Amino acid sequence: MGDVLLRHFASQIAEGINHYWYGREKEAKRILLDAEKELEDEIGIEKVKDILDQLDPWMIQWKDIINPPPDDKLILISQAPKLELMQIREVLDESIICDETLQSEIEIELEKDDSLPEISNKATIESVLNLYYEDRIQCAYFELNKLINESKIDLRNSPKLLEIQNDYNAIRKIYKELEDTEGWITDHDGAIKISHKLVPGTPTCSIMSETTFDLPVFNLLTLMYETDLYPLWIPFCKKTTLVKKIARSRKVILQYYNVAGIAKRETCLYGYGADLLKSDGCIMIVSNSCDKEDEFKGVKLPPKGKVTRAIVNFFGCVIRPINRNRTYIKLVSNFDPVLKYLPYRILNYFSRKLAKGMVKRVKKYASRFEGSQWQENMSLPENRDFYEFLSDVLESFYQSKGL
Hints:
The protein is built from 14 helices and twelve strands. The chain folds into three domains: 88 residues, no CATH class; 63 residues, no CATH class; 221 residues, 2-Layer Sandwich (Alpha-D-Glucose-1,6-Bisphosphate, Chain A, domain 4), CATH 3.30.530. By secondary structure, it is an alpha+beta fold. Strands 1, 2, 3, 4, 5, 6, 7, 10, 11 and 12 form a ten-stranded mixed β-sheet that branches. Helix 2 crosses helix 3, helix 6 crosses helix 7 and helix 10 crosses helix 12. About 12% of the residues have low confidence. InterPro entries: START-like_dom_sf. This is START domain-containing protein.
């Protein structure tokens, strides 16, 4: 009976860890407290310690992170044993495969970046960067934390590795926003659901859109990737300029908007995609303004001119293939156009109306993929690597699911 109880309690901790990592701290704590109460009811509070003593040390550590003991000091998430979390969720492959072009890029980064820490296992750093540049940010983050625990690396002195942590934190923030059901007000509930939520301390509201398309996920991802074609489907966007393609799916772009009779605005954005198909069955796209400084990730940004820069606090998109020809999509954004003379309640109202129209445009152009400019752009030399990679990733996912 003891073994059965131990396995059941361990499985509840594992479920709590999963919720915690995606920003659902309250749900993680609830699961853990319910599991402990169930254990106490089954064997009595006196014998609970005997069960806890049989848990692996890393699991006890996670239990205390989710629900810290009242007399203990604060436990930092960076102290968590990430390797075991990977084993629970079976996120990482046993080997890392990297194409020759990407491998060359990694080797160049390792040679020219003096900030990378001097540790004996340099191959481990290489494997972390491989994962990062292959858009497997979640896996790269878990491997990085294993490296931190083993080698005591200070990321403040390692900008390249710090990027991985920052990008993963952005993904986790968006996941938390998408999973959080509290405070959202439904504006339209139908084939396209539109909701909004006021953000404390800011004048803007977050907008969420979700729907299901009878279209291949590939079509939707091309719309997101081809930034120069954004004016075709993003409301009031007149032009998008590529500032720098940092990696296969990482770009810095400058957008120009013109709302006739109201204002002209620019946005300077950093955006990237993350392959979460293996762990979560989806691909995620994240973007936000990146122009607080004159440079970003070593990229010199276009100087600010007469046109006011709007602020994209965050944009996130989860694209989940249901089958080869049906896709679920969920978008969340928080955008401040910096308009002092127009009340934000009016801006927020029109933002909610525009969200539905934008989703309709996405469907319109994704449905007309054959012979489109998006399909033509796939054959451009600078795009071939990305689309070959995307095709391989999606096909592997479909086959693993028997689709």
